Amino acid sequence: MKAQDCIFFQLAKASQTGVKFWSQIVASFGVTAVQAMVLGFLHEADQISSRELGERTQLDSATLTGVLDRLESGGLIERTPNPADRRAIRVVLTTKGKATTLEMRTVMEEANAEFLHDLSDQERQTLRELLGKIRSAHHKGG
Amino acid sequence: MKAQDCIFFQLAKASQTGVKFWSQIVASFGVTAVQAMVLGFLHEADQISSRELGERTQLDSATLTGVLDRLESGGLIERTPNPADRRAIRVVLTTKGKATTLEMRTVMEEANAEFLHDLSDQERQTLRELLGKIRSAHHKGG
DNA sequence: TGCAAATAACTTGTATGCAAGTCAAATGCT
DNA sequence: AGCATTTGACTTGCATACAAGTTATTTGCA
C-alpha cells in the first residue's frame, strides 16, 4: 500500500484543500475559516453557551476559547453572563456580527457549489453521505 | 443551508475524526499522525530532499522543518548534506526509523480497513475517487 | 445541610498549517 | 566572469487542534 492510498492522508488533504479555498473567500470579511464556521452556527442558535457551541461546531473547549477571544476582539460576538449558571457564558452575535454572518451565508452557498463544481449532483450527494457515515460510525467510541 | 451541510465543515470534521483515530494507533510508536505519514513516504523514497518530501506529503516547508526536527530528535531520521547542491539536505531513515516504519505499515493497513469498516467495498472505492477528484480539481489554481 | 463529584470556561504546553521573510547557494543571462 | 533572479531550507508570527490541568460553581447524595 502506498502512503497516498491511506484514507487518513486522503481525508486530511481534501480537507486542507477545502479549508484553503474557504479561507481565501472569507478573508475579505476579516475572519478565518473556523471563525466563519462558528459565526454560521451562531446564526442558527444565538445566545448559547460555549459548551453547546463547542458541541455543535465540534470544537474543543480550549480551541473555542481562543476563537471566541478573536471574534470578540473583532467586535463580532460578545460574551454575556448567564444568570441561571454563573459558570457558563452566553455567546451572542453583535450587530456587526449578524451583518457579517448574513453576508457570508450567501457567499458560502456559492462557495460550496463552486468547490464541488467538478462533481455531478449524484456524486455530491454520495460524498456528503459517505462523510456523514464516517463521522457517525466513529462518534464517541465507535 | 445549515452550517452542518457545508462541505468544508464536513470534510474538516471527517478528517479530524480520521486523524484522531490514526493518532491513537501510532502513539504507541511514539510518533504523531503527521510524523507517521512522513515516515511512510520516506519508506517509499529514501534519500530525498526536504523540498521533494514536501511535495509528496503536501506539507509546507515551514511545517516540514518542524516535523523533521522532531523526527530527528527521536532518532528516526537524519539530515545529511547533498554534495550536488549545498542548499539542499537529504533526508534518510535511520535503522530505528526503518524498523518503526515497517511495523507501522502493517498497522496502517489494518487501521485503514477498520476505519472504513462501516462502508462497503464499493463505497470505499467511491469515497477515494471523490476525494481524489476534489484534490485534482483544485490542484494549483483550479 | 454538608461535602464529594461533576461541570463550564479557561490556561498551558506541544504539534501542525500557512503566510511572509531571511540567508546562502545555484542558475540564467549578458 | 558579473550580477540579478531563483531556489532550498529555515525562521517568525499567528491560528487552529488537543491533552492535561486549574478555578469557580453547581449537583447529587448521604
Describe the secondary-structure layout.
The structure is a homodimer of 142-residue chains.
Chain A: H1 7-26, H2 33-44, H3 50-57, H4 61-73, E1 77-81, E2 89-93, H5 95-115, H6 121-137
Helix pairs in contact in A: 1-5, 2-5
Chain A binds a DNA duplex (30 and 30 nucleotides) through helix 1, helix 2 and helix 4.
So how many helices of chain A? Answer: 6
Distance, first to last CA of chain A: 25 Å
Strand content of chain A: 5-15%
H/E series of chain A: HHHHEEHH
Poorly predicted sequence stretches spanning 5 or more consecutive residues of chain A: none
Share of helical residues of chain A:
55-70%
The CATH topology of chain A: Arc Repressor Mutant, subunit A
Q: Largest sheet of chain A, if any? A: 2 strands, antiparallel
Shape of chain A: globular
What is the count of distinct domains of chain A?
A: 1
**How many beta strands in the DSSP annotation of chain A?**
2
- Within CATH, the superfamily of chain A carries the name Winged helix-like DNA-binding domain superfamily/Winged helix DNA-binding domain
Radius of gyration of chain A: 17 Å
CATH class of chain A: Mainly Alpha
The largest interface is:
A-B, 52 and 52 residues
How is this structure best described in words?
- The first copy, chain A, has 142 residues and is mostly helical.
- The first copy, chain A, has one domain: Winged helix-like DNA-binding domain superfamily/Winged helix DNA-binding domain (Arc Repressor Mutant, subunit A, Orthogonal Bundle).
- Chain A is 64% helix and 7% strand.
- Chain A is built from 6 helices and 2 strands.
- Chain A has a two-stranded antiparallel ribbon.
- In chain A, a hairpin with a 7-residue loop joins strand 1 and strand 2.
- The longest helix of chain A has 21 residues.
- The first copy, chain A, is globular.
- Chains A and B meet through helix 1, helix 2, helix 5 and helix 6 of A and helix 1, helix 2, helix 5 and helix 6 of B.
- Chain A binds a DNA duplex (30 and 30 nucleotides) through helix 1, helix 2 and helix 4.
